[in-house]
């Protein structure tokens, strides 16, 4: 595990919440999300670890992780979470933050429809660098 550079500011936490309308505070690390993830073998941080990093405000580690782009938005983790945290939405929220920082400013918040913009995010992954 890499050492964190800094913890997220209040603005950064509010931005993530604005995009996802989800809180990770209730995550109790049961790992049900990770145990159902079909891409777990390719991830540097497992879904439950990404939720823990998010909860601790260690956004940089999530934003720099390979897992962020390995995740296929299959929603399995969200369907398994007993706390309705929806890790898939949180992960997609981080991807939206990265894409916005790279001036893909037309990525809209996902809470208006209630569903992640999977196709949009997936199609933009290839242009992330
Ligand atoms: S399934 Fe939900 S509560 Fe359990 S570790 Fe994953 S995000 Fe946290
Ligand atoms: S949405 Fe992403 S993290 Fe969640 S189970 Fe699917 S591939 Fe894994």
Question: In a few lines, what is going on in this structure?
Answer:
The protein has 129 residues and is mainly alpha-helical. It is built from 8 helices and no strands. The relative contact order is 0.18.
Please give a handful of descriptors for the protein shown.
129 residues; mainly alpha; Fumarate Reductase Iron-sulfur Protein, Chain B, domain 2; 8 helices; binds iron/sulfur cluster
Q: Give helix % range.
A: 40-55%
CATH structural architecture: Orthogonal Bundle
Query: What's the mean pLDDT score?
Result: 84
Radius of gyration: 13 Å
Number of domains: 1
- Detail the poorly predicted runs: none
Give the name of the CATH superfamily.
Alpha-helical ferredoxin
Q: Could you give a short account of the major beta sheet?
A: none
Secondary structure: number of strands: 0
H/E element order: HHHHHHHH
CATH topology label:
Fumarate Reductase Iron-sulfur Protein, Chain B, domain 2
Count helical runs. 8
- Sum up the overall morphology in one term: globular
**Residues in β-strands, percent:** under 5%
Main CATH class: Mainly Alpha
Distance between the termini: 23 Å
